[in-house]
Each structure stands twice: as structure tokens, then as C-alpha cells.
Amino acid sequence: MLLPLAPLMTFAFVSSITPGPNNIMLASSGIWFGFRRSIPHMLGITIGFGVLLAICAVGIGTLVMAVPAMQTMLKVAGSAYLLYLAWQMRAMNFDREAEQAHHPMGFMAAAIFQFANPKAWIMAITGGSAFLPQMAPVSLAIAVYCLVFCAVNLPCISVWAGAGALLRRFLSRLFWQKVFTAVMILLTAYSALAIWL
């Protein structure tokens, strides 16, 4: 059963584990809020992405991406949100009082963000066109495709939140906090600009 799904699982792993807006945001969330408080963010990404996968698997995603205005709107929304996050990061610090004053991204916001994330659209359209299992009925193929992709996606993105939470332990000195904050701001801003490349 797993052998025919191996190409899909490989694609899901490679596309989910590589850097992108979701993973950079999760690494930041792991650092600022820890792994446990980032769980709703992770679940929101996986469930929202699962819905996007289903939409693209039935062909709607291809139609959406065929409309230039829709592509531009997705890029604007995705890059604007990432630039907003980069701007918010400049004021963050690592003390407990400041941490309690801010909140990690919630489940619903993370789920909705998938529809403004160009990398998620590319993953979903590419996966749906190339790796949809050959099963009948088509609804079963789409369900298996979405479940397998999401089952691979969740552990992959969890690695980024976990890495952030682990790194948080080594950022006790103010100098390294400032250096790391600057790096994360630059990476987030780069992700926003890379959407247009």
C-alpha cells in the first residue's frame, strides 16, 4: 500500500521541510513562545493546507492560478503579512513579561494564511497534478492524497517550531537576542520579497 505512495510522501517531505513562510514563522514562534504554545499554529497550517490541497486536487487551484489578478492578489496578501510580521519582530524580546503580552498565531489565522501563501499554492497544485493516487472513486484518491500529505507535513513543520524552541535556550544574552532578531527579520522580509521572484 505504501509503495505506490512513496513518490507522494517524498514530495510532501521535501516541500514541507524546506524553508518557506510557514517554517520561518514557526521557527520564530518556537523562539518567542516555545513549542507548546506554537501547537495551534502548527495544526492550523496543516489543516488549512489540507483544505487547500483538496481544493487544488479537484482542479479549482489551477483555475485560480490561471487568473493573473488572483495570482497578484495572493502575492500581495502573502508578502504584506510577512512584512507585517517582520515589523512586529523588531519590538519582541525574550523576557517572560513581554512574552505574556504577545500571542502566537492561532489556529484559524494559520489556516487562513495558507490561502495567501504562494509556496503552499505551488505545493498543492504541483502535488495534485503529479502525485494524486490512481484510485477509484476520485474522492477516495483525493482523501488519501490529502491525508498522506498532511501526515507528512505536520512532523516536518514541527521540526521548525522545535528547533526554534531549542534555540531559545541559547539566547539568554541580550547581544545574541539582538543578532538573532535581526536575522529573523531579514529572513522574514526575504520570504516576503521572494514571493515576487
TrEMBL record:
Q: Provide the leader sequence positions.
A: none
What superkingdom heads the lineage?
A: Bacteria
Q: Which residues cross the membrane?
A: 12-35, 42-63, 107-132, 138-167, 179-196
Could you tell me what this protein is called? LysE family transporter
Give any GO molecular function from the UniProt entry: amino acid transmembrane transporter activity
Keyword Transmembrane assigned to the entry: answer is yes
Location of the protein in the cell: Cell membrane
Listed under GO cellular component are: plasma membrane
GO terms under biological process: cysteine export across plasma membrane
Membrane protein topology class: Multi-pass membrane protein
Q: Write down the species.
A: Pseudoduganella aquatica
Question: What keywords tag this UniProt record?
Answer: Cell membrane, Membrane, Transmembrane, Transmembrane helix
